[in-house]
């Protein structure tokens, strides 16, 4: 009896377990069926942009610019690059859709990166570019490109006068360079100074601050010449250095004192000439007013015409000669 009850309970338990298993299988089929039929409608499976990419890029004229767009869950969608100012399609996938062959789409199979490469960019290429994905509706991400002209600059005047025996100290800045230059070379004429065998020459370059200093101790006349600073990522800059002897102390202050003294001398000459001109004007003006007063006085008499005529004929040469002497004396 007990054994019969045990067998009945065992069959009932197995029946219940089978029903639970069938219910679980049906539920799993329903769930996976929904995922399979609406895969692209799920918000977690739609393409989206990886915002870790740099959205603003600065490039140097002539050096390739790269705009990197990262798209997750792309699936069978296509990625296009569009120039926003004129809505011109530049690339679709890895194909170029413009006659300007400087534009190229770079992509490695299996990666999420779609890079727009612009060879030899110019300032006119500055602007916004959109990375667009062919979803419905389309999604896009904008990238700002700034193309700049990077120029080196040597601090101070373009022409320097150094006293013989003094030190030459030149400082160069690689201005507007988006990345630190990999090197900054100094030249004297066409000769590289960074590795010069001449003693007393030292080049100190700091890549992080984009600066380089050329130090030449105890300069001689042989150190005179054209010095050029040439960074790897910038246009070069030059300065002319004159090493002169001590008998010309007026030209020591960066080559500007001589020019300043000449300018001051010219200014004084012009001021003196201006005063002389004004004095001459007032002398002639006074003579004219004197004659006008005499005419008015003699106009009240009957003989004013004769008197004025005689006075003018006799006194005019002497008066004009005195006026000239006064102008010269001043």
From TrEMBL:
Residues 1-33 form the signal peptide. This is Ig-like domain-containing protein. One of its GO terms (biological process) is synapse organization. The lineage of its organism: Eukaryota, Metazoa, Ecdysozoa, Arthropoda, Hexapoda. Residues 47-134, 137-240 form the Ig-like domain. Keywords: Membrane, Signal, Transmembrane, Transmembrane helix. The chain crosses the membrane at residues 297-316. GO terms for cellular component: neuron projection membrane.
């Amino acid at each position: 009896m007990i054994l019969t009850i045990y067998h009945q309970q065992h069959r009932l338990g197995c029946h219940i377990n089978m029903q639970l298993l069938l219910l679980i299988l049906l539920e799993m089929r329903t769930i996976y069926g929904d995922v399979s039929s609406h895969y692209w409608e799920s918000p977690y499976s739609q393409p989206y942009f990886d915002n870790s990419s740099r959205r603003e890029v600065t490039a140097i004229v002539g050096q390739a610019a790269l705009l990197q767009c990262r798209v997750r869950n792309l699936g069978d969608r296509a990625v296009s690059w569009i120039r926003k100012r004129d809505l011109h399609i530049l690339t679709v996938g890895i194909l170029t859709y413009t006659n300007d062959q400087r534009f190229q789409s770079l992509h490695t199979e299996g990666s999420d990166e779609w890079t727009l490469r612009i060879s030899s960019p110019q300032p006119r290429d500055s602007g916004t570019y959109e990375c667009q994905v062919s979803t419905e509706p389309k999604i896009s991400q904008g990238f700002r490109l700034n193309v700049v002209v990077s120029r080196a600059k040597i601090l101070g005047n373009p022409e320097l006068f150094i006293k013989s025996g003094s030190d030459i100290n030149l400082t160069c800045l690689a201005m507007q360079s988006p990345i630190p230059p990999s090197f900054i070379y100094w030249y004297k004429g066409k000769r590289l100074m960074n590795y010069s065998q001449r003693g007393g020459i030292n080049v100190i370059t700091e890549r992080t601050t984009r600066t380089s200093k050329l130090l030449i101790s105890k300069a001689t006349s042989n150190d005179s010449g054209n010095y050029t600073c040439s960074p790897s990522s910038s246009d070069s800059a030059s300065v002319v250095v004159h090493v002169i002897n001590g008998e010309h102390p007026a030209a020591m202050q960066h080559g500007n004192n001589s020019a300043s003294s000449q300018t001051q001398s010219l200014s004084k000459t012009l001021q003196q000439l201006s005063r002389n001109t004004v004095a001459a004007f007032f002398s002639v003006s006074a003579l004219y007013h004197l004659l006008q007063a005499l005419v008015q006085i003699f106009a009240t008499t009957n003989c004013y015409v004769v008197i004025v005529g005689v006075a003018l004929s006799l006194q005019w040469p002497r008066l004009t000669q005195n006026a000239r002497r006064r102008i010269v004396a001043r």
